[in-house]
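Table S2 (continued). Query chain:
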Amino acid sequence: MMNHEDREDAKNRAINMSRAIGIGARACAIAFGCAGLCSVAGAFIVAFSPMGAHGAPVFINDYEVSGIVGPLYCIIIAATAFCLALMLRALFQLCSSIEQRRTPFYLENVKALERIAYFTIAAALVWGLGTYALELAFHAPIGNLSAILWVWAGVVVLFLARVFEYGCALQEQDDELL
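Corresponding output:
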């Protein structure tokens, strides 16, 4: 059993880590948002420039693609990047909430964990299914199977959300006893 000093020390370490992760999550969210915007711009450049869709070829993973594949690939990248940016924004909100309230066990944090899980799964599905569809439709070997790992990561975060929800009930019960 932890004494009071050990509990406070553990709480302070968790809050400091939450602060650091929150700063990193915000920076990454901005970067992924910018990457998404650049990918949308790239899709328009490739699709509508004289040297784009009808001129010079586009290379994806050292494979030459032409026509609509390049712009579609850019749109898949953009959608994935936006999902990841939203996931990281939810992570930042979770870390900020933990830092402000000095405890992770609030229903607001459970909702943030759920958003993290859903956006992680959405990014994996957009990337995995989008690149797979391009492979099937245009015979362009551009996808990979790593998306399934991200789906599992999202499922694990959903599980953690349920654990946090139970922790909220225990926190509420403990607060009522005091």
